[in-house]
Amino acid sequence: MSIEEDLARSSPGKELGGDTLLTIGVFDGVHLGHKHLLSELKERAKERSLLSGVVTFNPHPQKVLSSRSGLLFLTDIDQKVELLSAENVDAVFILPFDAELAQISAGRFAGLMQQYLRMKGLVVGHNFALGRNREGSIDALRVLGADMGFTVDVVPPLAINGEVVSSTLVRKALSSGNMKRVHNLIGRPFSLHGQVVPGASRGARLLGFPTANLGIDPEQAIPTEGVYATRAYIDDSAYNSMTYVGASLTFGESRSMIEVCILDYSGDLYGKELKVDFIERLRGGEKFDTVEKLRQQIAADIEKGRALLGTAGRK
């Protein structure tokens, strides 16, 4: 299905019932830099009596443009749309990114946005480019806009402690296990969500600490290996929890997993959807000589985690 067929099928412009001011991008992670851009979009749309809209893509363009990119996403499409919608924009449009869309010219893409989304202007970041081979630079888009009848406004980047907030910066903090920094960059705890799947059943049987194994998309970015103080959400209820990311080194396994020990909870979780917020990394992965030493370390981790989670979020 072509991009035009996708747009025509949903008829989003008609559903909006008004002209739009759009921003376009991947918005992976929906971090504070993205939120800064969306805030500017809404303000400028209000000033011009236009509706604010976000155009984003699925999958990440790098997955199509470079098969060797190895890029892991920070937020899947459902979470991304949820986070974008929470910023109170008037509409979020998802375009399938494929080889056809990768080859479309900037002028053609802008024309489709005018035709189907009733675009009257673009609000973009300082390094934005659109179209085949990024031919639609900001300067090029301004020339197109003057000819086609749409405006182009550029929003300066958001910097924290001298660094421009970006998805790359978030991934770097995530890969080091610095969850406080991740939180400061995205404005919320980093989350993983998925279905509870069967594991090795060692948690309760051998260690005395029942764990839930979280099944996630293999292309999902995850924190570096280690033990984390976390909060788990089951049926909209929050529970303090401890989460181990990595391989079961003590048992000689190499396959990485995500094991969640939910404190003060009893019940069958298999098949349930679980969301886990990562609050702080307590330690790295470690291989223990005996199961008893591992059991003692887990008990110490839980004690430390309880103390930390009891104060997390307090000023």
The proportion of residues in beta strands is 25-35%
The whole-angstrom Rg is: 23 Å
Give the low-confidence spans. 203-208
Distance between the termini: 51 Å
Strand order of the largest sheet: 8-9-12-11-10-13
The major pleated sheet works out as: 6 strands, antiparallel, barrel
Walkthrough of the structure:
The protein starts with a helix and ends with a helix. The chain has helices at residues 3-10, 12-16, 32-47, 61-65, 77-85, 99-102, 106-117, 138-148, 167-175, 179-186, 202-207, 291-311, and strands at 20-24, 51-58, 91-96, 119-125, 151-155, 159-160, 163-164, 190-197, 212-215, 226-234, 237-246, 257-262, 273-283. Helix 9 packs antiparallel against helix 10. Strand 10 and strand 11 (237-246) form a beta hairpin. It is built from 12 helices and 13 strands. It is of the alpha/beta class and 315 residues long. Strands 8-9-12-11-10-13 form a 6-stranded antiparallel beta barrel. The chain has a 5-stranded parallel sheet with strand order 3-2-1-4-5, with helices on both faces.
Tell me the layout of helices and strands.
Layout: H1 3-10, H2 12-16, E1 20-24, H3 32-47, E2 51-58, H4 61-65, H5 77-85, E3 91-96, H6 99-102, H7 106-117, E4 119-125, H8 138-148, E5 151-155, E6 159-160, E7 163-164, H9 167-175, H10 179-186, E8 190-197, H11 202-207, E9 212-215, E10 226-234, E11 237-246, E12 257-262, E13 273-283, H12 291-311
Parallel strand pairs: 1-2, 1-4, 2-3, 4-5
Antiparallel strand pairs: 6-7, 8-9, 8-13, 9-12, 10-11, 10-13, 11-12
